[in-house]
Design a protein that fits this description.
This protein has 468 residues and is an alpha+beta fold. It folds into 3 domains: 287 residues, no CATH class; 109 residues, no CATH class; 58 residues, Arc Repressor Mutant, subunit A. Helix content is 39%, strand content 20%. The chain is built from 16 helices and 15 strands. It is elongated and about 100 Å long. The termini are far apart. The chain binds adenosine-5'-diphosphate, magnesium ion and zinc ion (ZN). Adenosine-5'-diphosphate (ADP) binds next to strand 1, strand 9 and strand 10.
């Protein structure tokens, strides 16, 4: 029988706010001396009063907006109770039934170039626990991480392969970094994955029973663990067994998952509204403000460049991946009215000059120049010959190119052409004898005589007329 995996990811990203979620302790804890960034609040002393960190909430909302999530006006924090030595409060402050955001998506690109949307169920806020270090002498606990702000991003069970899961996780990392909500550096423990995996016979609609593997901290272990789980479950079912719903752990050395405990249900956590923190009200104004701060993501920019402007995938990706260049391009294209031509000039001629200190051309200047070329008022050759000047002096193309404008007067151009024909009987004889290419010699002389201001296309037409 052929099986199909069904996968959903829960991703935790540490929000990069200056301070922790509910106290004013520093959130920069990487490599710090254990228990040096702690206070009664994040150590859960009796009587402590948590105070929510507005910067962290805003960064969470911003990431949610970048994932296309809706932001309800009202949400609240809830207590999720469980006992563990790294959790001094005895509960985590998280969000249960009214999270800060819901229903977004992540668009992934697969190796065959196809795209797929993976649904995001919700992004919610919570605080992290401390960290245990087991050694031969006993177990040590560091509370620096305790109370640091997290956003948990839960996906719909839309993922169908290791490749899709990996692409989803990588895209998510890009998004949270792009909006500067999380540094998402896995080496520093700022991004962790829980995977939920089930299998079902191909064609079956209902999902199978899932196993969850918690706390994977690299793309590699994410991929390996999913791959292992799919194979384990298929083998189990093929041998007449059944998958049980449980929480498993990943052994990075042996590269296997092992059963840890039965899956907790919501009731086990005794969720109830956090009484010390008032509801979170996110106003429409605040949402608009945060939306305005989100730069358009490189991927959607590239899509737009391709579908609306007709740029090649390669050129579109190249420009979109560089925020500065993208801004420059968009402005220049707006002025020129010809995005594709603007991109060609930008990438082939202007980009190499941009690196120089003397480059001062504004995107408006480049846009105007491309517009003049497109309208046929100057030739591409003239533009190229004077590009250094334009780019280093930011000269106004309209003014600068006045003496170099394409000759509008075809009567005068025709006179020059006739003149050159009269002076070159040998070339004319070659051409008339069937050497089509000989005409290039005449064109060159005419361009010289007009200092490059003749439109090569008109010159060709006139020559053919006069010589026929
Ligand atoms: P929790 O793990 O806290 O109980 P949920 O029930 O919301 O939370 O599910 C967590 C994750 O499991 C989600 O990412 C969801 O898409 C995924 N999931 C749910 N059912 C299945 C399934 N049958 N197979 C694979 N993944 C699943
Ligand atoms: Mg879970
Ligand atoms: Zn603290």
């Amino acid at each position: 029988m052929e099986y199909e995996p069904v996968i959903g990811l829960e991703v935790h990203c540490r929000i990069n706010s200056k301070t922790k979620m509910f106290c004013r302790c520093s959130n920069n804890i990487f490599d710090e001396r254990p228990n040096s960034h702690v206070c009664p609040i994040c150590m859960g002393f009796p009587g402590m009063l948590p105070l929510i960190n507005v910067e962290a909430v805003k960064k969470g909302v911003k990431a949610a907006l970048a994932l296309g999530c809706g932001i309800p006006e009202f949400s609240k924090m809830d207590r999720k109770s469980y006992f563990y030595p790294d959790l001094p409060k005895g509960f985590q402050i998280s969000q249960y039934d009214l999270p800060i955001s819901e229903k977004g998506k992540v668009t992934i690109t697969l190796s065959d170039g196809s795209k797929k949307d993976i649904g995001v169920t919700r992004l919610h806020l919570e605080d992290d626990a401390g960290k245990l270090t087991h050694s031969t002498g006993g177990t040590l606990v560091d509370y620096n991480r305790s109370g640091t702000p997290l956003m948990e991003i839960v996906s719909e069970p839309d993922i169908r392969s290791v490749e899709e899961a990996s692409a989803y996780a990588r895209q998510l990392q890009k998004v949270v970094r792009y909006v500067d909500s999380s540094d998402a550096d896995m080496e520093k423990g700022q991004m962790r994955f829980d995977i939920n995996v089930s299998i079902r016979p191909k064609g079956q609609k209902e999902f199978g029973t899932r196993a969850e593997v918690k706390n994977l901290n690299s793309f590699r272990s994410l991929e390996k663990a999913i791959d292992y789980e799919i194979k384990r479950q298929i083998e189990l079912v093929e041998n007449g067994g059944t998958v049980v719903q449980e929480t498993r752990g990943w052994d990075d050395n042996k590269e296997i998952t092992t059963s840890q405990r039965g899956k907790e249900e919501a009731a086990d956590y005794r969720y109830f509204p956090e009484p010390d923190i008032p509801p979170l009200i996110v106003t429409k104004e605040m949402i608009e403000e945060l939306k305005a701060e989100i730069p358009e993501l490189a991927d959607s920019k590239s899509d737009k460049y391709q579908s609306e402007f007709g740029l090649s995938t390669e050129d579109a990706n190249y420009i979109a991946s560089d925020q500065e260049l993208a801004r420059y391009f968009e402005k220049a294209a707006e002025v020129s009215g010809s995005p594709k031509k603007t991109a060609n000039w930008l990438l082939s001629e202007i980009k190499p000059l941009m690196a120089s200190d003397s480059f001062t051309a504004s995107p408006e200047t480049i846009g105007k120049m491309v517009k003049m070329i497109e309208e046929g008022s100057i030739t591409g050759k003239i533009a190229k010959d004077h590009l250094n000047e334009i780019c280093s002096k930011n000269s106004d193309p309209e003014e600068y190119f006045k003496p170099f404008k394409v000759m509008e007067d075809t009567g005068e151009l025709e006179k020059i052409c006739q003149d050159v024909i009269n002076r070159n009987p040998a070339i004319v004889a070659d051409f008339k004898g069937g050497k089509e290419k000989a005409i290039g010699g005449l064109v060159g002389q005419i361009m010289g005589a007009t200092k490059g201001t003749a439109n090569p296309k008109s010159v060709n037409e006139i020559l053919h007329k006069l010589l026929s």
